[in-house]
Amino acid sequence: MDRLLVLVRHGQSDWNLKNLFTGWRDPDLTEQGVAEASAAGKRLKALDLSFGLAFTSELTRAQNTLKLILGELGQPDLTTIRDLALNERDYGDLSGLNKDDARAKWGEEQVKIWRRSYDVPPPGGESLKDTGARVWPYYIFNILPPVMRGEKVLVAAHGNSLRALIMALEGLTPAEILERELETGVPIVYRLNADTTVAEKKVLKG
């Protein structure tokens, strides 16, 4: 049985380009982001992959990344489930702020703690641990079962929601996941063992 799960962080968004904290705000993809998403689809097509089910967040940049990938795969009508459990980490009061302006307001060290600690949330927002608290149950009860039944599943989401998912998938510690960076528009292909552990992992870089 081919238990296959593919994770893709959305292509570059307008606010990525402008160096803004995005979180649950809803900017769309840039031209580069569109190109990254299309390229992701082409890389998956080159592996002759097709999917039985897709998941994405409630945010436009992830939905449009998925749409572009499925277009390249010739599967524009694939059953797709959208859920806010897969939304990006909520940056709270930082949302919409330029990262340099945030450093000027709160100090380099404080902003670094909010961005890179595991369990310290920014004001009004979520830590990576908080993000995991909604991602992990969703993964276990919604995403993992079809994978284990042998369906090929595609997830297009966000840097932090996917990091939380990868933490569970790969059994990483809080320290290990904080070192993990996900590039925009780069598919990660997992094949799972019968016990849900990772049998094989490929990062499809250009």
Give an account of the 3D structure.
By secondary structure, the protein is of the alpha/beta class. It has a single domain (10-154, 166-191, 199-203), classed as 3-Layer(aba) Sandwich (Rossmann fold), CATH 3.40.50.1240. 43% of the residues lie in helices and 14% in strands. The protein has 8 helices and 6 strands, in the order E-H-H-E-H-E-H-H-H-E-H-H-E-E. It has helices at 14-17, 31-46, 60-73, 99-106, 108-116, 128-148, 159-170, 174-178; strands spanning 4-9, 53-56, 80-82, 153-157, 188-192, 198-203. Strand 5 and strand 6 form a beta hairpin. Helix 2 crosses helix 3 (60-73), helix 4 packs across helix 5 and helix 6 (128-148) crosses helix 7 (159-170). Keywords: Gluconeogenesis, Glycolysis, Isomerase. Its EC number is 5.4.2.11. Belongs to the phosphoglycerate mutase family. BPG-dependent PGAM subfamily. Pathway: Carbohydrate degradation; glycolysis; pyruvate from D-glyceraldehyde 3-phosphate: step 3/5.
